[in-house]
Amino acid sequence: MKRKISRRTALATGARLMGGGLAGAWLGGMASGGIASRASAAATRGTVRFAGTTGAAVQALSEDLIPAFERDTGIHVEATYQAYDALTQKTMTEFVSGSPSFDVLMFETSWGGRFAPFLEDLQPAVAKAGAAYDPNDILGAARKMGIYNGKTVGLPYRVIGRMLHYRADLFKDANLTQPPRTLPQLLDYAQKLTKGDVYGLAVLGKQGFGNAYEYGSYLFSSGGGWWDRKTYAVTFNNPIGVRTLTFYADLHNRYKVVPPEVTTWAWDEWIAGGQNGRYAMTIMHTPYAIPLNDPAHSKTAGKWAWADAPGWNSLQQGAPPVGGWLFGVPRASAVKDLAGEFVTYMTAKQAQLTSVAKANAPTRRSVFQDSGVRAKWPWADVALRSLDRGTPMYNEPEELESEAALMVVCSAALAGVQDPKAAADEGAAKLTDILKKSGRMK
Amino acid sequence: MARPVARATPHATNWTRRDLETVVVTAALVLATAVFMFPILLMIAVSFKAPVDVIATPPHWFFRPTLDNYAALIGLHPSEFKIDLLLHFRNSVAAAGGATVLSLALAAPAAYAFARLRFRGARPVMFFLLALRMLPPIATVIPLYLIMRNLHLLDTIVGLILAYTTFNLPFVVWVLRSFFLDLPADLEEAALIDGATRWQCLYKVILPLSAPGIVASGIFALMLAWNDFLFAVILTSRHAPTLPVLTAGFITEMGTSWGIAMAAGTVIALPVLFFTFFVQRYMVVGLTTGAVKG
Questions:
Q1: pLDDT at position B138, please?
Q2: Which residues of chain A have pLDDT under 50?
Q3: A153 secondary structure, DSSP code
Q4: CA-to-CA dists, residue A83 to A107, A111, A288, B249, angstroms
Q5: Do A82 and B233 lie within an 8 Å CB cutoff?
Q6: Please, which of A147, A322, A414, B14 could form a disulfide with A390 given CB 3.0 to 4.6 Å?
Q7: Measuring CA to CA, which residue among A80, A81, A71, A77 is closest to residue A48?
Q8: Distances (CA, A) of A395 to A110, A284, B142
Q9: CA of B74 to nearest chain A CA: how many angstroms apart?
Q10: How far is B61 from chain A (nearest CA, A)?
Q11: What is the DSSP-derived secondary structure letter of residue A364?
Q12: Residue to test with chain A: of B252, B270, B272, B285, most A Cβ within 10 A
């Protein structure tokens, strides 16, 4: 027999369920929170609250390393994972309020200077970890990412360089036997490889956090930069800067060797373009070799090869940006010793080696040289060289504002809506304003 | 089947101006519905796609559907994410439901007072309430964070309910006041003559007659709270995060996991969709009566 459910009955049932849910959530939450706290307090040396980002960057951490850390040290870990934007927004709010809800923070290189006043110097934690920690095994660029004004604000957990990813099959078809060694040669190759729907090269061209740094793969490898790191004189529009921005814009506007839609490409589209066979070469993040070669996601898996990112004049000049994720400990943490133990555990060789299995990008030379890693990652040697030669991202407090200014002019030049010289000059003027406002420039 | 418009046949005279208007209006409505439904249908379609189909260029409109994204969402399929869907769902229901109930409970007497009673400062207070809605939410986040910290309500459902109520309340008061103003004062006067108190007038006369307005403002309050991301991300961490926070987590440095994100989006949309479906009649009445009158 069919029973008709009236709107009124449905609403009343919904209200009861909601009420029950509310009460259940409240009581359940209170009960579970209380029981968990008491249990962990009795069984462990204490609790460390960890705030990190999401996805592949922390998969090893959440699934393998934190359980191992808890087992090995007797320290309980309460972990929260949030998307990059959400994490930084929340972190800054909590720092400003003076009471962060975490004892270890995972943060990206660019935030180092801005977070520095709120973070503990980690050198004592490194010293306490003893000789087994071996800080000299950490790659130079990775180590520098976490240092601001001489203070170690973070220890690197994940480091990302840029290398040339290229389609070996298309190179063979075009009779190209060696990867390009200079940027002019890269353009020449791109012209040869552009055929039909497949373009010779790809860049991340969408305006947003990302496009300025990906332009850095060209600018830094030409000897340019935002500003001089010692004097803070703006160099973005010096002759090298103007030449490089012109070269970059011409890829799209004059030579048409990048897909026309690259001005709408952020990371997702950039990776998807490679997975769909839209381009033959790109100077891209070292760990992106993984999604490009994952048969479950990529139609071009198994067709990629890797080489050092070219420089303007020579291969040796190639010095694309290096950035990544660091672990820091807030000065306001009540368990700094335990937090320091967590940070050194996660950035030590054994944890880094374990993390490779879940697609982390390790920070230690010995991990890249490990035979298992080399067998798993055919690009390990190239990635290691990229990290050794790369230019650490800026981590001054002015960096985020500077990147916001430069992403506009880089995008305008690439899209052809602004002359590259005018775009470089406008970018330099904005950088000058930012540096004057912060007192770095008179 | 549509009738042909043939000038030469006698049937052509059967097409009245009204028929043509109906056809044009229906076509426009179908088009508008298609435009508005497209993102939702796309979200649902992507939630059933395998990763290779998600990133395909040109897009694959026909594909072999998979439940992997939904399975990953409930932990039955491996993924790089640590997902506790039940926790986030329960928190969303409790926070949004609680905030809606509390907003309505507080707003109803306030709106009644503004609608019926004359007191000094009524207009400035109403304007002040409206001005609260003009504040960008980000401006209130740090003060709210500090308040919640001092009250030990960070990362709790109660804290979220209070936060959502702060930004729901002005809106609900304004909407309910409009509904109350539409009701004839004679009804209350009759009740007062019969010996009812002001509170009895509100609960026994006004509120039952204002059901459409209460439902309409309740739906909006629910949707505002249900969709909130900013307050949820700042005020919660481990125990009380809501569904929007979970969904944002699928945007990672290695790209966005569109399949799982769209599956989560579909799951998030469903409860509000069903709720709106059940109460749509009241909402339409609500929208067309008091809400547009000041």
A1: 82
A2: 1-3, 5, 7, 10-11, 14-15, 17-18, 20-22, 24-42
A3: -
A4: 11, 15, 18, 4
A5: yes
A6: A322
A7: A77
A8: 5, 21, 25
A9: 16
A10: 16
A11: B
A12: B252
Mean pLDDT (chain B) is 86
User: Hey, are the CB atoms on A89 and B80 less than 8 Å from each other?
Assistant: no
Pull the structure tokens for residue B259. 């399949």
Judged by CB atoms closer than 8 Å, whether chains meet at B52 and A288 is answered as: no
Residue B262 has pLDDT above 70, yes or no: yes
Please give the pLDDT value at position B7.
54
How far away is chain A from the Cα of B53, in angstroms, using its nearest Cα?
9
Mutate to test the interface with B, among A97, A271, A326 (most CBs of B within 10 A): A97
- pLDDT for the residue A214: 94
Residue B148: both structure tokens together = 């919640």
DSSP code of A430? H
Nearest by CB to A287, from B154, B249, B254: name it.
B254
Check B254 against A56: CB less than 8 A apart.
yes
Residues sharing a CB contact under 8 Å with residue A3, sequence separation 6 or more, in sequence order:
none
Question: Tell me, what's the pLDDT at A29?
Answer: 42
Largest CA distance in chain B: 82
CA distance B109 to B111: 5
Alpha helices in A44-83 (DSSP H): 56-60, 66-73
Q: Give the mutation candidate from A6, A11, A17, A22 for the B interface (greatest B CB count, under 10 A).
A: A22
Q: For residue B265, what are its two tokens?
A: 């989006």
State residue B42's pLDDT score.
92
DSSP state of A139: -
CA proximity to B232, closest of B221, B248, B219:
B248
In the numeric block, the tokens 């200077």 are attached to A113
Say whether pLDDT at B10 is over 80.
no
**ipTM computed for the complex:** 0.71
- Cα–Cα distance list, B227 to B39, B75, B96, B230, B235 (Å): 17, 23, 9, 10, 15
Would you call A99 and B257 a contact, using CB atoms and an 8 Å cutoff?
A: no
Closest C-alpha to B155, from B210, B61, B76, B231: B231
